[in-house]
Amino acid sequence: MNVYDTERMIDVMAPEGYEETETPEGADLVVLNTCHIREKAAEKVYSDIGRIRKMKNAKKNNGEDMVLAVGGCVAQAEGAEIMKRAPVVDMVFGPQTYHNLPDMVNKSLALKADGEKSRILDTDLAVDEKFDQLSKKAVKKKPTAFLTIQEGCDKFCTFCVVPYTRGSEFSRSIADIMADAKKLATAGVVEVTLLGQNVNAFHGVAATGEEWGLAQLIRELAKIDGFERIRYTTSHPHDMTDELLEVHRDVSECMPYLHLPVQAGSDKVLKAMNRTHDSATYIEIIRKLRERRPDIALSGDFIVGFPGETDEDFEETMELVREVKYAQAYSFKYSPRPGTPAAQMEDQIDEDIKSERLAKLQALLKEQQTEFNNSVIGKMLPVLIEAPGKTPTTAFGRSPYMQAVQINIGDKSVEDLMGSIVNVKINEGGPFNIQGILA
Ligand code: 5AD
Ligand code: SF4
Q1: Whole-prediction pTM value?
Q2: Last-in-domain residue among 68, 97, 124
Q3: 200 lines ligand 2 (CB under 6 A)
Q4: One domain for residues 237 and 367
C-alpha cells in the first residue's frame, strides 16, 4: 500500500514540475512515507530525518532550500510528536490526505518565502475525497499496477495499529474502480493487483445501488481487454467467502496465488489476538481452496511471541505451517504498538524467546519455500516480463505463483518482451527466486 501511495504522490506532484530523483541528496522536496506497523519501522523515521537534515543543511549552504515532509502512518499516529521532536520537518500528513500534497508544498514554500516557519499538519482520516482527486491523474505505461479498492480496517486485531492509522473500513464505488481499471488497461497494464488492508471485506456500491463483493468485482475486471492477470491482497480468513473461492476455480485471470495471513496456530492465541477465526477454520478454507484450484500457491503472515504465547502455542503454529505448506511467507516478532490492547497485556514475551521462535519458524518457512520453488523445475511456466534482468541477456518476470523468475532471453531484446507473457522452461530453483530459459 505504501508503494502505491508513493506512486500516487509522484503523480500528484508531476503537474507542479516535480519528478522522481534517484537519491534524496539535492532534492527540492523529500517525502518520507512511513510505516507504523512494527516498532522498528516506526523508529526508522527519526534516523532518516537526521540523515535528511544534513542534506537540507548542505542545500542551505548553497543558498537553496529543501521541503522535508513526513507522510504515512507514523505521521498519522505521531504527527504532533514529530513536529515537536524534529523542527527540521516542514510538514506532516497522513495516508488519507496526500492528494493535498501540491497545496501543502506550495503553502510551505510561501511561508518560507515570507521568512516564516513552515509547520503544516494534515492528518484528517476521511478517505473518499482522496480517491476522487487521484483518479484525475494520468497513469504511466507499465505492465503491472496496483489498484486500491478498499482501505482501512474494522477488525481490530489486538496487536495491530492499522484501524487507528488507516481509519475505518472504506470501499470505493464500482464505477470509480472500473474507470481506474480501464485507464490502467488502456495504458498497457497486463497484471493488476487489487489492494486493501482487508481487501476481501470489499463491498463496493454499484450504479444500480446493489453491493458487490470482491468475487463479483474480479469477475467483472476479468472481462476488461488487456487484463490477463488479477491478484488481490491482503485478505482475512473471516471474509474468504465461498463465492471468492469459486473465482479461483472459474476465472482464469485470477492468479493461483493467495496471501492469507493466519498469524498463529494456537486457538488460545488467535482468540487473544481477536482474529475471529480458529486454526481449524483456516485449514478448512485452505482445503476448499485447493479443491477448487489444486496448484494454488499460499502465502501468509505470522507473529511469534504474542503476549501469553507458550512453547506449546508456538508448536501449534509450527504444526499449522507443516500442514498448510506455504510457497512464501512473512514472519515477525510481536512488537507492542502504542494504543493497541495487546501492548497492555500481561505476559509479554522475552525478546530472546521471540528471536528463538522466529528463527525456528523462518527456517521451516524457508524450507517450504525452497521446496515449492524446486517443484517447478523442469516445467514450462507462463511468465510476465516486468523488467530487465541482472545482465543484458536476462529479463525479470513473475510466474503465476508470484515467483520471481530470472529468464535467459538470449539475443532477444528486453524492451520488445516487456509486458508480454512468455513461456519459460524452468531449470533452477532455490529459496528466493527461480531461473529459466525463454522457450
Ligand atoms: N507486531 C508484529 N507484527 C505485526 N503485524 C501487524 N502488527 C504487528 C505487531 N504489532 C504483522 C501481521 C500483519 C502484517 C502486515 O504485519 O502479521 O499481517
Ligand atoms: Fe490489522 Fe489486518 Fe487485523 Fe485489520 S485484519 S486489524 S489490518 S492485522
Answers
A1: 0.93
A2: 124
A3: no
A4: yes
